[in-house]
Amino acid sequence: MIKKNIEEFKKFIARGNVIDLAVGVIVGGAFSSIVTSLVNNILTPILGLVLGGVNFSSLSITFKDAKIGYGAFIQSIIDFLIVAICIFALVKLINRLMHLKKKEEETKVEAPVKPADIVLLEEIRDLLKESKEEKKKAKK
Predict the structure, then answer these.
(1) What's the topology of domain 2-139?
(2) What ranges do the domains of the chain cover?
(3) CA-to-CA distance for 86 and 94, rounded, in angstroms?
């Protein structure tokens, strides 16, 4: 029973979709850290300057003993929006490329394949033509 499950698991892991998914998750995680750095180190300080020197990471409200840090939440929202825009643009680009590729495939016209009897008749015609030409040469 365990051996059968191990074999099924190996087949599952070896399928291309699972490996592609794993690579996508790893690349997505790396991309997410780049976007977080972009938001935290570039966009949020610029946005803070535009809004009068506000530092989003330190924005918070204290209510009795609880400190609610809504600035970090704003940064997370900005992170999400940038990631969503990037993914949207990437998906749109991939769809456009796939559409172009599909259009190219549709426009390619394959030469029609001649039936075998037609090919045979054409060969016979060509042989008869050659035979006639040889007879004409032999008479001269």
Answers:
(1) 1.10.1200
(2) 2-139
(3) 12
